[in-house]
Amino acid sequence: MSTVIGVTSAGGVAIVGDRVVASGGHVRSRSRQHVFDAGRVGFAVVAADVGGVADRLSSEIRAYRTERGDLDIDPLARMASDLAAEFDATLLLAARDDDGRPALRAVAADGGVTADDVAAFGSGAPVALGVLEAGHDPDATLDEAATLGRDALSAAAERDAGTGTDLDSYRLSV
Hints:
Blueprint: E1 3-9, E2 12-18, E3 21-23, E4 26-29, E5 35-37, E6 42-46, H1 50-68, H2 73-87, E7 90-96, E8 102-107, E9 113-115, E10 118-122, H3 125-135, H4 142-159, E11 167-173
Antiparallel strand pairs: 1-2, 1-10, 2-11, 3-4, 5-6, 6-7, 7-8, 8-9
Helix pairs in contact: 1-2, 3-4
């Protein structure tokens, strides 16, 4: 498994994830991307079939834009919710809300969607959440939020073999 986290701040939303693929207690790869930039929206996936989820969600995002224009957080969350239940995946989403402000949504494997200031999924999530909750500042800049996310993943990597140190990130600024 890997670990992905999301952090909101006054400056926007940062999503950070590592590149580890682990199963059966063994690291299978250290090069699998879990954080994706879909142009004006970003998402992170933790699942057995990360590529399948990312490809389907990216395809649905493109189709939505072709038919309806810009995509905000609520339709993105509905799309991700359907895929989460189908693929047994967890996702973090960053997109603008109805007012044009960056927003973060966490989508559980059962399709449930929550709006959080900080969120984490994956094998290192308990450690990462501890760091995120202790250090979260809603008035922080986007750079400070991204740094907190990297620090949370570094702490998780020290304590969880399923979390790596090579990171990808997505930022959505105000």
